[in-house]
Amino acid sequence: MRLLFVLLAAGHVAAQGSSTLPTETPTAPNTPSDPVVPTPSISIVDPPVSIPPTDTPVESSSPVSSAPSSSSSTAPDSPDDDEFSVVSDTDVGNGVTADITPPPDVPTLDQHLEEQAANMPTETFDPETARSVAELESGYFVHFVETAPAPGDKQPLAIPDSASNCMAKRKRALNELMGPYDGVSGPVLQARQGAECNWIDEITIPIHFHFIRSAYKKAQPYEAKGMARLTEQMTYLNRVYNPLGIYFRAEGKGYTIWDPPKSGKNSNWTQLGKSEDRLVRWQTISNPRPRTDRLVVWVVNDLKGMDVLKTLNGYAYLASSAKKVGSIDGVLMRQGVMFGKGSTTLIHEIGHWLGLNHPFGKVVDSKDDDCKLGDGLLKTSHLSGLRSVVNTCSQVRCDGKTEDVYNWMSYSTCRGTEIDLGFTTDQKTAMFVRYMKFRKGFKAGDCVPRDPKRNDVAKKAAVNKRSAMQDLVDGKCPDIDAQVSIFLSQPTAAPSEDAAVSGYGGVSVVGFVGTLAIIVAAMLL
Fold first, then answer.
1. 382: pLDDT confidence band, cut at 50, 70 and 90?
2. Which of 196, 418, 498, 518 is the most interior residue, by most CB within 10 Å?
């Protein structure tokens, strides 16, 4: 009985460590890819794209009641506060639009630094996840180099025979041991599934934009009546990503315009800060049925970063965070940079959403600290992070070569000026693997490379170690353990208020400990 009392008490104390329980995020359905639409057009008068009913966001013009949110703003702050409401198509067509043309999307260094801080992950992969990603990327990198390399490679890539033979032996050993992926528990026996698996060569991503006006019934975003801006953004997105085999398809009519509360202290949406309670609340209301494979883009009038005196153009949640952040998963943008032929910031942030890091690692002040950490990909993609050069066009790469930098994930002033040179094959590989692993999910028959000689214990982190993809290009068998170390050594930010609003932390563990204590005590009776 004494043991029972101790265990029950421990469970009670642990349970008091949290006042809320995390909500479970629905997993992405393993359905076949949607038909490819290279450059979808979004218009108020066009018929909506056919989407399954469960995917269609709330489109009613009546007030939308607030669903329970992890934000502290779960109820109106005063009797004068109204709820958010969707602007009807009629109001969009007849309403006043802003007449100020936004300036070109050319971020300053300060804006880049705020973006870097906003996108810093709060945690790294766990060792098992890191190993799985390293194995997948090694296999898919060889596949893409041989079948569909990205147009942005500095020079044609080739896998030397020595590395090809190594990977072929691993593939044979894996097939003999396990066979293709069964879509449920992992690889299955050859007798059940057949000999060859299907490589993922194309990804189609449903996308929906949410705009919120600066105040109730105020001017809509510039050129909102015909959504010309949005049509341009969609066309540009597909122009950039289609050569990689990544396609964006408008969900429903493609956008929703919202009015903020009519009155009260939350009625002024002229300016917002990252992860403000009211922002999180709006995101949660506008995305009540989150899907990890769907991209939601929220657009606000003005956005401030960690430094409230500095502007933040946009930020995204990384692919690996998808199931943890729930309804706020997606990209958040300042509307002023979404104008013209296309937003370089939006392209950049979607790269983060698909799993990419900055190719320079982080911005530093000293050469002694430079080139210590990249994005874990090829050395030809590893750029300098020196504050004095990171926001310039011509840069000296970490391998000593000078070039004009066009990479979309860089802070170069030249990014976007040569569209086809913006992504490389190693980046394409990372986007495909991380989207499929963390967002879409592999299905039966998909190729899911694994190392049949995998170790259970990762080696000590080696920050400046070559990547597994670099091993392959250099004719070596990929060092999976070293790649795991690179993943585990990626920098992280201290847990922020994002952790509170998205279910991070030890809430589920606490609840589990309390329940386990009761179960164990009962078994001992």
1. confident
2. 498
Q: Quote the CA–CA distance of 443 and 91 in Å, as a whole number.
A: 43
Bridge partners of 272, per DSSP, are 303
Going through 164-217 in order, the beta strands assigned E by DSSP cover 203-212
Indicate whether 502 pLDDT > 90: no
Token duo for residue 319: 């692919």
Helices (H) and strands (E) in the chain, counts: 15, 10
Residue with token string 């494979």: 293
Q: Pairing state of beta strands 402-404 and 394-396?
A: antiparallel
The secondary structure of 260-271 as a DSSP string is --SSSTT---S-
What are the start-end ranges of the H helices in 268-354? 277-286, 322-325, 344-353
Query: In this predicted model, what pLDDT tens digit does every residue of 295-340 receive, in sequence order?
Result: 999 999 889 887 777 889 999 999 999 888 999 999 999 988 887 6
Please give the Cα distance from 58 to 61 (Å, whole number).
9
Cα-trace Rg, the chain: 24
Q: State the DSSP H helix or E strand holding residue 229, giving kind and residue range, or none if neither.
A: helix 228-241
Amino acid at 420: D
Average pLDDT across the chain, whole number: 71
The answer to whether the beta carbons of residues 510 and 179 sit under 8 Å apart is no
Amino acid of residue 445: G
**CA–CA separation, 522 vs 166, rounded Å?**
53
Query: What is the rounded CA–CA span in Å between residue 116 and residue 305?
Result: 10
pLDDT tens digits for range 84-117: 888 877 676 666 666 666 667 788 888 888 888 8
Average pLDDT over residues 237-258: 94
> How many Å apart are CA 341 and CA 330, to the nearest integer?
22
CA-CA distances (angstroms) from residue 20 to 99, 219, 236, 494? 45, 38, 42, 22
